[in-house]
Design goal:
Layout lengths: L2 E9 L16 H13 L6 E2 L8 E11 L7 H7 L6 E9 L11 E10 L12 E3 L5 H8 L4 E4 L14 E11 L22 E8 L6 H14 L4 H10 L14 E7 L1
Parallel strand pairs: 3-10, 5-6
Antiparallel strand pairs: 1-3, 1-4, 2-3, 5-9, 5-10, 7-8, 8-9
Length: 264
């Protein structure tokens, strides 16, 4: 009977066309699958908890695959890492029950969207944060975000809904924090391992049962508009209740997006 192996990994998505395998492009899933197959010496299908966008990053992606390999599970991370580029790292592995599925067994996913709110961009964070040069009012952003918490139809925040029958999602956490600021901040900070500890950043932390395509980057877009003063906090409620993508906000760049954690 095949073993069901769960892997946890981190990756820098800068040089990849997103997660999902594509026949003519280099993707994180494609590289990982090749590395796993080379390591175990057999075909393996990688199943992921989340398929995030081109240029986005992960601190806590979770995958699983089936294998006949009988090694001690602690061997898998180091063995697979030998066949991976340096921008993808497997940091944990465990053997799971046969019915574990990285995507469908997940109860929630937590992301961070990182904004560099400064007059000047940074050569060091150009691929790791959304640069916004105008001052943002974090208190207004927090007030606007309050309308999005809970269970709602997020059709206005979905950029690709052709094959999606249900656009209702439940947001269990939506917090905003300005690093190094005395402003009213979130109750839960961003990960201490994240680059948001390095300078003048605003982090948006968001957890939900699942997300629609483009949903987080659209939420970041409308909250930036609110923080800039182009929209009021109440406009967030209006856009949400419209359930109409044509009224949806600007989608902010993927390189500010991080998959932080998946809960089971």
């Amino acid at each position: 009977m095949k073993r069901n192996i769960k892997l946890c990994l981190q990756y820098d998505g800068t040089n990849y066309y997103g997660w999902q395998k594509q026949s003519n492009r280099v993707t994180v899933a494609g590289i990982l699958e090749q590395a796993v197959q080379k390591t175990i010496g057999e075909e393996a299908r990688i199943i992921a908890a989340s398929r995030i966008d081109a240029g986005a990053h992960a601190y806590g992606q979770v995958v699983n695959f089936q294998t006949d390999a009988g090694w001690d599970v602690s061997v898998f991370p180091k063995a697979i890492n030998c066949n991976l580029p340096r921008d993808i790292i497997v940091y944990d592995a465990c053997c799971m029950p046969s019915d574990f599925h990285a995507r469908f067994s997940a109860k929630w996913r937590k992301y961070q969207y990182l904004i560099l709110n400064s007059h000047f961009s940074s050569p060091f964070y150009r691929n790791y944060a959304c640069f916004f040069p105008h001052e943002l009012d974090i208190d207004r952003m927090i007030d606007g975000a309050a309308f999005l918490a809970g269970k709602h139809d997020f059709a206005s925040f979905c950029t690709e809904s052709k094959n999606i029958e249900n656009t209702v999602r439940t947001i269990s956490l939506l917090s905003i924090e300005k690093k190094g600021s005395t402003s009213r901040g979130s109750t839960i900070s961003a990960s201490t391992d994240s680059p948001s500890d390095k300078g003048n950043f605003i982090s948006i932390d968001i957890a939900a049962d699942a997300f629609l395509y483009g949903m987080i980057r659209s939420i970041a877009g409308i909250l930036i508009d609110v923080g800039r003063g182009r929209k009021s906090p109440e406009d967030v409620k209006m856009v949400l209740e419209a359930r109409d993508r044509t009224m949806g906000p600007m989608v902010r760049p993927a390189h500010g997006l991080y998959l932080m954690e998946v809960g089971y």
